[in-house]
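Note on ligand handling. Small-molecule inputs were canonicalized before submission; formal charges were left as drawn, and no protonation-state enumeration was performed. Where a ligand contained multiple stereocentres, the stereochemistry in the source SMILES was retained. For zinc ion, this procedure yielded the string shown in the input block below.
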Amino acid sequence: DIDADHIPTPCGKVHDVWVCSNCGAVGRGVSPKKCPACGERKFNEKTWPCEVCLESAKVEAIKLIDILTKDFGFSSGELKVGFSGHRGYHVHVESEEVRALDSMARKEIVDYVLGIGLEAEFHGLGERGGKWSRVLAGPDLYDLGWRGRIARGTYDLLLTASPEELEKIGLKKRVVDTITQHKEALLESWEEKGPWGIIKGIGTESWRKIAQYGVEKQSVKIDTVVTTDIHRLIRLANTLHGKTGLKKIEVPITGIEHFDPLKSAVTFKEGTVTVLVSDAPKFRLGDETYGPYKEQEIELPTAAALMLLCKGAAKVVE
Ligand SMILES: [Zn+2]
Ligand SMILES: [Zn+2]
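Structure output:
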């Protein structure tokens, strides 16, 4: 189970709202642990199936499919992928062997997928050679399993990270400067043995931190609770999701990159409904964009009106 709620996106702060179930205090973004006004721990959360959040959930689904097929050896025929109708994707493995797995076994698979307890030193990163000439070596982009993933995550980090991000993972300012200065050479090094140990001033410990962050980049942000729970009911395909009025639909694995949930999952395609919207962020359905709305009466296509009604953000005007 993959849900945008478990993936930090910048837009969550804009469109998600929490309401304290005790005192009614309201805030934006992910709900706090405790209500700042009364200390309550329960909140009513209003999240949105926004484009950016759904896209990041899809990226995670693609990463998961990659692990399940390449590392676990399932065929794509054994996998069924679905858009949940709200903010996520379900990836089902339909095979007799898997059905017998208990929660513990599933937890182990979850740990693998998340890259929990994974140390780059056990996946090819380390010093090689004799007593007098030790060289640092590391995994290659095309290695199988987590080795390749660590390498690709590292590549990704070197390609995209800002100096601030590099400092955040615990690298010293001096090391960050060296990386920034030699960025080109580091990226080109992947054509040969990779960047490990090729630049003076970036030591083994720094590379370990970088590779460890590569793990973080490649780990799949799945909902661990739902994934390991063997008693959970998962929505059937072609049924409506109560929080959106969109339907759960199957997603073809080939071409999943181009799948657009906000188009394909729209069910009600005719008519209009006039609603009084209290508060809603900008959102898209099909090719149309709606909102933002605040205390506004408006006639909308049925699917858009239904979305607002399901979210508790509007009322039907008689
Ligand atoms: Zn409160
Ligand atoms: Zn979003």
